[in-house]
Amino acid sequence: MKVALFGAEGKVGAALLPVLVAAGHEVRPIEIGDEPDVAGLDACVDFTTPDAAPANVRAAIEQGVSCVVGTTGWEPKRLGELAAEAGVRLFVAPNFSIGAVLMMRFAHEAAQYFPRAEIIEFHNEAKKDAPSGTARATAELIGGDPVIHSVRLPGLVAHQEVIFGSEGQLLTIRHDTTARESFADGVLLALEKLGSLPAGLTVGLDALL
Ligand code: NAP
Prior knowledge:
This protein is of the alpha/beta class. Helix content is 32%, strand content 28%. The chain folds into two domains: 2-92 and 182-208, Rossmann fold, CATH 3.40.50; 98-178, 2-Layer Sandwich (Dihydrodipicolinate Reductase, domain 2). NADP nicotinamide-adenine-dinucleotide phosphate is lined by residues 6-7, 9-13, 30-32, 47-49, 52, 56, 70-73, 93-96, 126-127, 158, 183.
């Protein structure tokens, strides 16, 4: 596929670019300050910032190009409606790592048997939004408005613990992302399935598995 990569020089973008190329995609890197000229491409991938992503997605939709978005900390509902009107797909996932999606699935299941849970998410200090999109999505799956603790420190990549408690027992479900390449498989899967999704917004890798 011919793919634009918004944020190609960012931490995720830089890890993603060689994987996309190795998988046979033709990639046009788009950095801050570049014109979001994507007309005629098959898809856009965005790993930028919560401020930049909505404008990038809007530009792509206006040029009739479907999007795969990993940027967190923004609300995609309105642009999903615009995408539906334009007949293009907007796929957004708070986490593209398969292990993290399974962690959320297991947390959803455990929540049926435990009365209380809290979430601790750990990310690199450069992460701009808190709590993380994954933590918010997990909280929604668990229900009951669990407390989310956000840790931002150098040395961390992306990690999350969901701790369930009841009288006399604790259950901890933990996922660790140790390298940003872990997001690439999910992005490749999203690009592969993009054409078979309905026009408009689809949220979460779970919808593709
Ligand atoms: P990062 O290192 O800060 O990278 C963001 C990149 O986007 C930077 O190179 C930045 O350029 C660039 N950028 C800013 N505005 C732009 C624009 N208008 N057009 C094109 N590029 C622009 O951040 P990151 O760690 O790669 O993370 C990026 C986003 O992905 C964050 O929202 C993060 O939370 C999210 N994320 C999601 C997942 C997932 O699985 N869904 C996984 C990891 C991260 P400058 O440096 O020049 O500003």
